[in-house]
Amino acid sequence: MMSKAHIPTYDICSLSMGVQVTEDLLVARFPDYLEAHQHIHFPHRHSFYHLALFTAGEGTHTIDFETFPVKPGQFYFMVPGQVHSWFFSGKINGYVMNVSAGFFNAFLQDPAYVERFPFFSGVSAEGVVQLPKAAIPVATELLEAMLQEMKHPQGYSQDMLRLLVLELFIQVTRNTGQAPSGQEPPHNYVLLRNFRKLVDQHYMQLRLPKDYAALLYVTPNYLNAFCRHMLGKSAGEIIRDRVLLEAKRLLINADMSIATIAWQLNFADNSYFTKFFKKYAGVTPEEFRKNIS
């Protein structure tokens, strides 16, 4: 594990593996990717969307301090900024995809289109998808088609790759029952996405549901009831969880004092931050740091 260093953040070019049709997309088979980047099992972040499909092997994959057992048919979807690490036992097989946030911008009218997919919510558990057995060949065939397109580019290769990536996202959503069923009004998904985006942008300054309700033009009571309906949590819990997650991310850096982290997260003082962290994480910041060092 990391101790005396910041969590490294990799951009898509730093993990390049040779000739690419576009600097915004990398697709590789897992053994090749691990061989080229043997250091990346330590906790790190990406500035891009990072996907991993496992077809063979075992181990663990930790995303934002939540650990999942690796199983064949498991597809991991990570958004920019999430902290993750993996530890494998035995031979691992599958695919890795790195795709920039701007890859689709020249192709789609809606720049936020990709955020509609449920596995790109930024919540660790929602980004871990178990593919049904029949859906695994569908996903692998699309990934192999991307590899061939990148190896032998033709006219409109970038657009073909965009189509293949989008088809992969749609097929995974359909084959795992995550596609909207029609029972939930479409505007509910838009409101949820907008609320989560606002929390991610303003959690350091805005801590009360009423602040976000005003930005969303709804009442605080409506926002709380809506969040409980959609996620089983109140709006306040969602805001609190985001603050707690960032605190954990910062605590990995042993060079930052607890007081500095408290100040950066906009807590009134170190004591208040410590009480907050222990109440919701179950341990003090110092104990959490010791456990991950």
From TrEMBL:
One of its GO terms (molecular function) is sequence-specific DNA binding. Gene3D superfamilies: Homeodomain-like, Jelly Rolls. The keyword Transcription regulation applies. Transmembrane segments: none annotated. The keyword Transcription regulation applies. SMART domains: HTH_ARAC (SM00342). Coiled coil: none annotated. PROSITE patterns: HTH_ARAC_FAMILY_2. Keywords: DNA-binding, Transcription, Transcription regulation. Residues 193-291 form the HTH araC/xylS-type domain. It comes from the Bacteria. This is AraC family transcriptional regulator.
